[in-house]
Amino acid sequence: MDWEERYADRMGWVRSLEIMDLIRLMSQRPLINFAAGLPDPAGFPVEALKDAADEVLTDDWRSALQYSEPEGYRPLRDWVAADLTRRGVPTSTDQVLIVSGSQQGIDLVARAFLQPGSVLLTEDPTYLSALPIFRSFGVEMSPLAMDDGGLDPDAAGAAMRQPGVKLLYTMANHHNPSGTTLSDDRRRPLLEHAAETGVPILVDEAYLDLRYEPGEPAPLAAAAPEIPILTVGTFSKTVAPAMRVAWLAGPAPVIERIGILKQLTDLHANPFTQRVVHRFLSAGHLPAQVDRLRSLYRGKRDVFLRALERNFGGRATWSRPAGGMFLMLRLPPEQSGTALLEKALEHGVAYVPGSLFYPSGDGENTMRLCFVSASAADIDEGVARLAQVVWS
Amino acid sequence: MDWEERYADRMGWVRSLEIMDLIRLMSQRPLINFAAGLPDPAGFPVEALKDAADEVLTDDWRSALQYSEPEGYRPLRDWVAADLTRRGVPTSTDQVLIVSGSQQGIDLVARAFLQPGSVLLTEDPTYLSALPIFRSFGVEMSPLAMDDGGLDPDAAGAAMRQPGVKLLYTMANHHNPSGTTLSDDRRRPLLEHAAETGVPILVDEAYLDLRYEPGEPAPLAAAAPEIPILTVGTFSKTVAPAMRVAWLAGPAPVIERIGILKQLTDLHANPFTQRVVHRFLSAGHLPAQVDRLRSLYRGKRDVFLRALERNFGGRATWSRPAGGMFLMLRLPPEQSGTALLEKALEHGVAYVPGSLFYPSGDGENTMRLCFVSASAADIDEGVARLAQVVWS
């Protein structure tokens, strides 16, 4: 009985990233892991979450253990709406859908808008794990070049006017992997192109709060609140990934429609962990938690930048991200991040070849390095090993 | 900016059940709710879950709050594999994928096997919330009639031989809504038809453990362990729905492939609640918990059956389920479960019109009644109100 031939056509577009499988396999032995985008457990607010879980299971267990509303726990939706409003994006509760991680938010939006023949606009590079989602819907990917200020809104606007364009996916703040933040002066023009062409924008604000330089970046949607776009945000980076609590916000009728899709997909996000996150938030823990993460990750970023300077100074370049969790190392053009990976793994250090993030196929000479997971000592050692791998 | 016209074609097949919306709306005022399939909170093992959550966040928080393996928490997969093996379905860990509720298991299988033009075989009636999943993939539904012993395996075999058939979805034990269990003598013939035709079977074992009569029903797969089928099972009914921990088991290559699909959909099931459920299981709580639920729900079923006898005896018929959470009330043919709903809601009692469960459109004179949610007093009162609605 060969089920392989029984699959729907779309399964031909469902692929795992083999290199990620290799990294995962190798990661079973001890190595210094700059590959995975794992928050540092030292930043987990474990005591506050333990208290919140205990409280929820003490005084709200009848609801917290039961089936729940498909749109998500209403007080949490209220909180997200109020928070977006405070950040310059006037939002009502019916404009917020709770999803099981931003990965699901992206998948639901893709499922709602994309089909074979659709053209998807995305930054080049872009979030690695969004690419298999888009590919699974059989779309054509149209990559938009970036510079230190993010994408060029007029180039994006011209691309939006191409036939078949169904969605633009962007990460406006503390971009993964490039580390860039879209310049303020590019924001309104980008949104105006969306309004003129009617192309929906999905902005991924996963790293919005993780900022290590002065200034508070605003959600992209705040640049022109009268222009409807879809925003996906998450508590994975600020509270804990395992809560699987994220949100999608946008025009109420679209949120309602995607909410119906969400409901048939998995009924609703986790009612228990939604309540745990909501307790955490309403106890007022978030601002101190964000401060703590900023301080922790800023320190690690600086250790990483100094290690790069020591080991790669004058021989390679790298991004200096103002936020997020990643930086990109650019080697001389004759080097290949893909080709060097196996040797690096043998030397006990892992990264992700940068080319995987480029729908265009560019970036062969780059490596994406997560700077928040490893300890300071491991960062020093890991970067030294990387240099040995590259230069020996 | 009209996003309605921007949706992918498949969104034309994504519909909410309007009647369910009505019930939900009405349920905001107090009523006796026989509609929702909600486990009785009195059956939640809240103290054991509280202990498990506390333990996990005390000694395993670094992993329990982090991103995790896409296939699921390995000790939990081991447990499911061992449990299936013990029940007569030899299963290895790589044949088990942890999913976020059985709803997601069904959606993932549908996404893997169904596309416009596919024919889906399903019992008539079948699980209400599976129907919008199948419909969302643009399939043609081919309903299979049932009797007290479940579906007819030879009729199913003949249907499997029709062109375009891509999947058979069945609930072999304690069927929702009919309450039937597939007769032992029909099981192997059904699986042999699958083996001969190559049509994958997805069996939904959500209610396997909820049995109130003598005998332990086996998973369908145990009837012919050499014939590969897909089984979806869940801890929602035995532990708590809000854990969102369920599993899909089947041939290893198919599980691996669907695991890749699962990963792009939402990365992985909830790492925290997977560990909470695993602690609960490995502490040995499940057998006593299942006994407790059986006793609780058996009592409610019997109260419900007596109330029906008092109020509907001689004027209607109903199922006498040996397990599960639901029974079906069959009114005289001139009555309509759909037409009576609004009046019932006005009288403060909710049910789901049975016709919604029938892909064939049959069942107009039926009502699905959940017998586990309401208290004994509310069951008596609710059934009396129903009789008033029907007979006055």
Description:
2 copies of one chain form a homodimer. With 392 residues, chain A is an alpha/beta fold. Chain A is built from 13 helices and 14 strands. Chains A and B meet through α2, α3, α5, α6 and α9 of A and α2, α3, α5, α6 and α9 of B.
Order of helices and strands of chain A: HEHHHEHEHEEHEHEEEHHHEEHEEEH
Strand content of chain A: 5-15%
Tell me the count of domains of chain A.
Answer: 2
Strands across the major sheet of chain A, in which order?
Answer: 2-9-8-7-6-3-4-5
According to DSSP, the number of beta strands of chain A is: 14
CATH top level of the largest domain in chain A? Alpha Beta
CATH architecture of the largest domain in chain A: 3-Layer(aba) Sandwich
- Give the mean pLDDT of chain A: 95
Oligomer: homodimer
Shape label of chain A:
globular
Describe this protein with a few key phrases.
392 residues; 8-stranded mixed beta sheet; 4-stranded antiparallel beta sheet; homodimer; Aspartate Aminotransferase, domain 1; Aspartate Aminotransferase, domain 2
Topology record:
The structure is a homodimer of 392-residue chains.
Chain A: H1 18-26, E1 32-33, H2 46-59, H3 61-64, H4 74-86, E2 96-99, H5 102-113, E3 119-124, H6 131-136, E4 140-147, E5 150-151, H7 153-160, E6 165-170, H8 184-197, E7 201-204, E8 230-234, E9 246-249, H9 252-266, H10 271-282, H11 286-312, E10 317-318, E11 326-330, H12 337-346, E12 349-350, E13 352-353, E14 366-370, H13 376-391
Parallel strand pairs in A: 1-12, 3-4, 3-6, 6-7, 7-8
Antiparallel strand pairs in A: 2-9, 4-5, 8-9, 10-11, 11-14, 13-14
